[in-house]
UniProtKB/TrEMBL annotation:
Keyword set, alphabetical order: Oxidoreductase
Record-given protein name: SDR family NAD(P)-dependent oxidoreductase
Pfam (any one): adh_short
Transmembrane regions: none
Keyword hit for Protein transport: no
Annotated InterPro entries: NAD(P)-bd_dom_sf, SDR_fam, Sec_Metab_Biosynth_Oxidored
SUPFAM superfamilies on file: NAD(P)-binding Rossmann-fold domains
Keyword Oxidoreductase (UniProt): yes
């Protein structure tokens, strides 16, 4: 199993679960210290967890780092049974990376595109491959502006967020077309999750998230229960869930043509 964003929140909860279950887990993240603490805690009960865990330090808002992660995984893994895309860092304002990409688009979509397409050979080698993409499903079908993928014109947090979510649904079309036995799940928690808030946001959003998280939020372990069931018994094809509730996915020529158009535009931008 490969988990991006596997040192915090729901990603860390999944890493702990599968290390405890005896699986091999590779975590992609920015904090070696958090990873070491996670593995040490599991190793107290099962010392073999240390040998079954790997860490790749990377900033997935950088295309170069995403490519490096792919190259390392291809070099050191024979297959990937499950790929969980859970890296997150919320930005309310438009920021540009050192590579010139809009930072949220680079983290929440470009990195996922590169991991999904680049790791396809390892997913094909698995008997029942599954990708869980924690991009909340349900964006409008017209949310992607193909002429302005990086929201250079009229950036708002809502517009940026909706575009990323819709693009990740279209990525599922590309993925299952390439790997017919793949289960590609677009998933979001049913309600707030209590976890550390990673992001560059104003005090209002930070305080609201902290207060509501304490009052109404569920633990990361409870939130990922439906994800574990999906990973353990994947069904080929695309699906979308909020918590354990399956949601309808759009179908038809428009969706396929939009997916192809998105791939063409992204390849040009890279």
């Amino acid at each position: 199993m490969v988990i991006s964003g596997g040192t915090d929140g729901m990603g860390a909860a999944l890493a702990r679960h599968y290390l405890t279950a005896g699986d091999r887990v590779t975590v992609i993240g920015r904090s070696r210290g958090k990873f070491d603490a996670l593995v040490a805690a599991v190793s107290e009960e099962d010392p073999s967890a240390l040998a079954r865990s790997r860490f790749i330090e990377a900033d997935l808002s950088l295309v170069a780092d995403s490519r490096r992660v792919v190259d390392r995984l291809l070099a050191h893994h024979e297959r990937i049974d499950a790929l969980v895309l859970a890296a997150s860092f919320i930005r309310q304002r438009r920021e540009t990376t050192a590579e010139g990409h809009e930072a949220s688009w680079a983290l929440f979509f470009l990195s996922k595109y590169l991991l999904v397409t680049g790791l396809a050979p390892l997913l094909r080698a698995a008997e029942r491959p599954v990708i869980v993409n924690t991009a909340v499903p349900g964006a409008r079908a017209d949310a992607v502006d193909f002429e302005d993928l990086e929201t250079a014109r009229g950036f708002t947090f809502q517009r940026s967020n909706m575009q990323q979510r819709r693009a990740n649904e279209l990525l599922g079309i590309l993925a299952v077309d390439d790997i017919p036995n793949l289960a590609y799940i677009t998933w979001g928690p049913a309600r707030l999750v209590r976890s550390s808030f990673a992001g560059d946001v104003g005090p209002g959003m930070r305080v609201t998230a902290a207060v509501l998280g304490r009052l109404l939020g569920q633990s990361p372990e409870a939130a990922v229960d439906p994800v574990i069931r999906i990973i353990d018994a994947p069904a080929p094809g695309r699906a979308a869930y909020r918590g354990a509730t399956e949601l309808p996915l759009g179908t038809g020529d428009r969706h396929g043509s939009d997916a192809a158009r998105l791939a063409e535009a992204v390849e040009k931008s890279l």
